[in-house]
Design goal:
With 313 residues, the protein is of the alpha/beta class. Helix content is 32%, strand content 25%. The chain has two domains: 3-153, HUPs (Rossmann fold); 164-309, Riboflavin kinase-like (Elongation Factor Tu (Ef-tu), domain 3). It is built from ten helices and twelve strands.
């Protein structure tokens, strides 16, 4: 797979393509439905599938105060797109200039001139061009002029249509199971394990701590059952996962994802890049009156995590 980060990066000899367009944040089941349509058309006509996405998210440029948190960074997104059936990715740098392109200009520059599109597949609610003035109808009209056909795919999911917004809503409520249903896989947080205050180790529950990032989505504060995977070796461990700032202890303000690998106190994970996958919520975050009450509840959390994750946990 190639990731082109500008129109100039696209090879002049790319050949004819099937194109899918969208932010593709999370590459959820709705996105996968659109990609399957493009993949089928591409296979029938011997085309490569190219996904056009935007970096950063258009809202981060047009209305930064309303920009959504991201479910996936660009590299992760590209990997998920490849798994879903995409051959290459054009991550179009989104700025005020791109935002000013008319729908026809976007179709000419990106779809016709750069990608030599034969078919362009989008969701039925797709909007593009200056002030989001373009839709499937205008894309179809441009295609008739520029030599590609446009396909608008009905939105997938039900009774709730799958969308990145829906997944963010689930995460904000701590509903990681609902987010996983829409994604078709557990929601994950990735990061490098940092040295914390080692309070978990003192309590008998050593944790691998990954700081959260301000503009990256994470589940609501609480305790979850899930899996921690080392990205260097691929080893995967069952875990009880705390998200938040540890309200029982004063002075802690940094929001972190802290994973206790069930029944293990011998792992050295500092400076290791890990992936934390959330399976289900155990409880919300609570401020305890003392350490003894906290430890007792942590034992209950571990027991509940075992129950959720099953025999392998």
């Amino acid at each position: 797979m190639q990731i082109w980060r500008s129109l100039d990066d696209v090879p002049a000899d790319l050949g004819r393509t099937a194109v899918v367009i969208g932010n593709f944040d999370g590459v959820h089941l709705g996105h996968q439905h659109v990609i399957r349509e493009a993949r089928a058309a591409a296979d029938a006509e011997g085309l490569r599938v190219v996904a056009v996405t935007f970096d950063p998210h258009p809202m981060a440029v047009l209305r930064p105060e309303h920009a959504p948190t991201t479910l996936t960074d660009l590299v992760t997104r590209a990997g998920l797109l490849q798994t879903a059936g995409v051959d290459d990715v054009l991550a179009l740098p989104f700025d005020r200039d791109v935002a000013s392109w008319t729908p026809q200009e976007f179709a000419q520059r990106v779809l016709a001139d750069a990608l030599h599109a034969v078919v362009v597949v989008v969701g039925a609610n797709f909007r593009y061009g200056t002030r989001a003035s373009g839709d499937v109808a205008s894309l179809t009209a441009s295609g008739e002029e520029l030599g590609f056909r446009a396909v608008g795919v009905p939105l997938d999911g039900g009774p709730q249509v799958w969308s990145s917004t829906y997944i963010r809503t689930c995460l904000a409520a701590g509903d990681v199971a609902g987010a996983a249903q829409a994604l078709g896989r557990p929601f994950v947080v990735r990061g490098v394990v940092v040295r914390g205050d080692q309070r978990g180790r003192e309590l008998g529950f050593p944790t691998a701590n990954v700081p959260t990032r301000e503009l990256t989505a994470a589940p609501a504060d609480g305790v979850y059952a899930g899996w921690l995977r080392r990205l260097d070796t691929g080893e995967r461990y069952p875990a009880a996962i705390s998200v938040g700032t540890n309200p029982t202890f004063d002075g802690e303000r940094e929001r972190r994802v802290e994973s206790y690998v069930l029944d293990r106190d011998d792992l050295e994970l500092y400076d290791v890049e890990v992936e934390v996958a959330f399976v289900d919520r155990i409880r919300g975050m609570v401020r305890f009156d003392g350490v003894d009450a906290l430890i007792e509840t942590m034992h209950d959390d571990v027991k509940r995590a075992h129950q959720i994750l099953g025999p392998t946990g």
